[in-house]
Amino acid sequence: MPTDARDPEFLDKVSNLVLNNDPRVRELNLSSAGLQDSHIPHIADALALNTTLRTVNLSTNLLSDLSVKELAAGIKGCPSIRKLDLAENSLGSRGAGYLSTVLDSKTSLVGLDISVNLIRDEGANAIIESLVHTPHQPISWLNLSENSLSDFSAPSIANLIRMSANLTHLDISRNDFQNDGIRVLADELALCSNLRHLNISNIQLVRDETSGCLGQNSSLQTLDMYGCMIGDVGGTSMCRALATNTTLLKLDLGANRICARGFEFIADGIRVRCDVEDD
User: Of 38, 118, 133, 135, which has the fewest Cβ atoms less than 10 A away?
Assistant: First the structure.
């Protein structure tokens, strides 16, 4: 697998690999390869003629909105892609818009990672709108972490949770949601029965809006709330939620400014749950 765009034969090697349509080659991994916008037209042209690749990983490169426009055309032509990783590039809302124009035709796509970019609310809303309208909503794993999202994209994310029966993993950590946005998401989480893993870490909450929905939720198995700063008051609320929740297996509450008394409340909630399960 070619891994360094500085190799003068890099593009030819990548194109030949993709164009061969070798069924044994299921993944194109060009993460940290030094890709720039100028490399993408050649790669996109080859992708458009490929029918075997399952995973395309272009993370941690130097790709901008311009290259995503070219890339989207290639992705549209490759019917077998199941996972697309564009994390840690320089995608903005315009690039997300280009990508969204082809997602609703990708009925095989189950995983999408566009974390650590700058797509903002406009880009996130465009992508989610497309995913919601994809036939049978196949997406099961979505990472929107660290994209400067705010409360304006919370209704779209809530709608995705509501409409996508296959969505099991969602990462919206390290964004700029406030309590109003988290409340919109929490209301939907209380009712959903599909989501198994949720990461909202490093979203600073003035009030803990998640505990109430956690007590009602019947699907979550892991919840990452590291760095949410819920404090002892949030710990008290979490106690009540844990006492009634029956599915959660892993909860990260690190760096939340919860003192010993707050953790005692949380432990009480866990004990109540264990006693109920033992009965």
Answer: 135
Cβ partners under 8 Å of residue 252, min gap 6 = 201, 223, 224, 225, 226
Specify whether the CB–CB gap between 148 and 118 falls below 8 A: yes
Q: Which of 131, 69, 142 is nearest to 105 (CA)?
A: 131
> Could you say which DSSP state residue 191 is in?
T
Q: What is the pLDDT of residues 30-87, one digit of tens each?
A: 999 999 999 999 999 999 999 999 999 999 999 999 999 999 999 999 999 999 999 9
C-alpha to C-alpha distance for 143 and 122, rounded to whole angstroms: 16
Residue ranges of the chain with per-residue pLDDT less than 50: 279
Task: Give the C-alpha separation, 270 to 263, whole Å.
Answer: 10
What's the rounded Cα separation, in Å, for the pair 224 and 232? 17
**Best CA proximity match to 13, nearest among 32, 30, 26:** 30
Determine the length of the chain.
Answer: 279
Domain architecture of the chain: domains with CATH: 10-278 (3.80.10.10)
Grouping H, G, I as helix, E, B as strand and the rest as coil, residue 54 is coil
